[in-house]
Design goal:
The chain has three helices and eight strands. It is an alpha+beta fold. The protein has a single domain, classed as Cyclophilin (Beta Barrel), CATH 2.40.100. A hairpin with a 2-residue loop joins strand 1 and strand 2.
C-alpha cells in the first residue's frame, strides 16, 4: 500500500508540474529593436546555415543598426537590411547561394531578399505579414518571429505595387544576437 501511495504521489506531482521548458538557444535568437518595441526572432541554422551565419556576422558588426525598412507591402512583407535604403544596396561581403527548403512562407517567417539571380542574397531580408505560398522553395527561410509580431505589424507601409516607403521610413534601432546582450 505504501509503495502505491508513493507512486501515485509521484505521478500526481509530475502531472501538476509544468513541463520542463528548454532554455532558449540565445546564440540563435535575435533581438530586433524597433521604435514600436522588441521583436524576437528565432534563427534556423538547421534550415539555412549559411544565411544564419551571414546574419550573425552582420549583426555583430552593427551593420543593421539604423537601416530602413525601405519596402513594406500591406498584407505581404516588410523588407530591410539595405544601408542605402534603395533596395539595391548590401554589405561588402560576397553574395551567398540559396538554401531553399520545404518550409513555408507564413506570417512571421524571415526570408532572405535577393535579385532575380537565386544566388544574389547578401544582407537584405524580409518579415512576412501573411502567408505567401508563391515564395515557397524560391527564397531562403532563415528565421521566425517568436515574439513581438505586433511591432512588425506597425512598421510604416510603402506605396505602389513595389511598396517603396515614401518620406521617412521606420528603421531598425538595434539588431543583436541575444547571447551578446548582457
Amino acid at each position: 500500500m505504501h509503495r502505491r501511495t508513493l507512486i501515485a504521489s509521484g505521478l500526481a506531482l509530475a502531472a501538476a508540474s509544468p513541463a520542463v521548458a528548454q532554455a532558449p538557444d540565445l546564440e540563435n535568437m535575435l533581438y530586433l529593436d524597433l521604435k514600436q518595441g522588441r521583436v524576437e526572432i528565432k534563427m534556423l541554422p538547421e534550415v539555412a546555415p549559411l544565411h544564419v551565419a551571414r546574419i550573425k556576422t552582420l549583426v555583430r558588426q552593427g551593420f543593421y543598426d539604423g537601416t530602413p525598412f525601405h519596402r513594406v507591402i500591406e498584407g505581404f512583407m516588410a523588407q530591410g537590411g539595405d544601408p542605402t535604403g534603395t533596395g539595391t544596396g548590401g554589405s561588402k561581403l560576397p553574395n551567398i547561394p540559396p538554401e531553399f527548403s520545404q518550409r513555408h512562407f507564413v506570417r512571421g517567417v524571415c526570408g532572405m531578399a535577393r535579385s532575380q539571380a537565386p544566388d544574389s542574397a547578401n544582407s537584405q531580408f524580409f518579415i512576412m505579414f501573411a502567408p505567401n505560398p508563391g515564395l515557397d522553395g524560391k527564397y531562403t527561410i532563415w528565421g521566425m518571429v517568436v515574439r513581438g509580431m505586433e511591432h512588425v505589424d506597425e512598421i510604416k507601409r510603402g506605396t505602389g505595387s513595389n511598396g517603396q516607403v515614401v518620406g521617412e521610413p521606420d528603421r531598425i534601432v538595434h539588431l543583436r544576437v541575444a547571447a551578446d546582450v548582457k
